[in-house]
Amino acid sequence: MQDLLNTTHAFYFRTFVLFDLILCLSIVIRISVVVTDGAMVSSFYVLPRLCSKSFLNFIHKTAEYCNSSPFKNLQALQLFSATSKTETKRCIPSTIGLPSYVTSSQLKTPSIAEIKTDEQISQMLPACKLAASILKHVGNNIKVGITTDHIDDMVFSKCIEAGAYPSPLLYKGFPKSVCTSVNEVACHGIPSKQILNEGDIVNVDITVFYNGYHGDTSATFSLGKVDDRSRELMLATQDCLNAGISVCRDGALFSDIGDIIFEKACEAGFEVIPFFCGHGIGTYFHGPPDIVHVPSDHLGTERMKAGMTFTIEPILCDGYAEIKILDDGWTVVTTDGSRSAQYEHTILVTESGNQILTK
After folding, report:
1. What DSSP element (H or E) covers 101?
2. Omega of the bond prior to 70 within 30 degrees of 0, cis?
3. In what order do the strands lie in the sheet with 185-187?
4. What is the set of domains in the chain, with CATH numbers?
5. Can you say which residues are annotated as belonging to the binding site for substrate?
6. Per-residue pLDDT reduced to its tens digit, 140-173
7. Binding-site sequence positions for a divalent metal cation
8. Is the four-CA dihedral 240, 245, 248, 249 of positive or negative sign?
9. Which of 29, 239, 263, 278 matches a 20 to 30 Å C-alpha distance to 218?
10. Taking a C-beta distance cutoff of 8 angstroms, is the pair 264, 293 a contact?
11. Distance between the two ends of the chain, CA-based, in angstroms?
12. Which residues are annotated as a binding site?
């Protein structure tokens, strides 16, 4: 999920939101909204998470009762996100822990790569296992004819059933619970009414917040009969991920990851999209270290240490590794329309090697 472009996201309110009071000398806005499932959420307070010249996003929170199944008569938080093209309303049971960027609008990350204790690792492992199980569930149920919104619903429901929060939801304003990137979409695809067709490939990137920790994993799935080149692309990307993981051990150079991934991709005849990297992860969604998937001089002699946890998530494409970001401020596509694939695991560096936590 983390990118190196530091892109500014443009998010705006839709016309269905009615402003009825602006408190003087305050950024707090009081509004009224009618929820389409029959529940009325009225006159609650909205706090902007972040405002800039081209970025405006609001999180709506309320302790009203949600009337929609499975939350009927269950006290819950009503979360709302609006962008220029996407609207989302979700009920989160109040018993589920929320990440800091939802509760306080702040991204809390360490300044340096964290070395976790055995206790922290044991607390983080359930989140990673849950993310892996939800990804497996999606893989077992994805099929031609469903929409990417349906995938979002599957992920959200499984998170809530497990007592977890879907980490992407409202992270820097992202409006959905999962990223779904189809064909030429390299990453950060927003679930929508887009129908998956025969021959498509789609990456599903899942992160959950559970027991105070995030777990992050992704895979690319094929729909029906897929052309040989797309299958080769998917296999090569998996091989690159596995190669990147294989060099991780206490004392290894971080640059070793990008070197071997780039080498493997070239051998297979594909390009690595260099603009997006893996990241440290824990009680924070994204943090140091940055895991670069191509050769990089700026990493210097930085070395891994036992107890570090981070993701490796290379994106390969069958064409030029040039990208653009669409008007929604999130969706990244290849400029030449070539297909891309991505696979991801959260790993732990150990003294003897590494452990894949999302396996």
Report:
1. helix 100-103
2. yes
3. 185-187, 332-334, 323-325
4. 18-103 (no CATH), 118-356 (3.90.230.10)
5. 188, 286
6. 999 999 999 999 999 999 999 999 999 999 999 8
7. 205, 216, 279, 313, 344
8. negative
9. 263
10. no
11. 19
12. 188, 205, 216, 279, 286, 313, 344
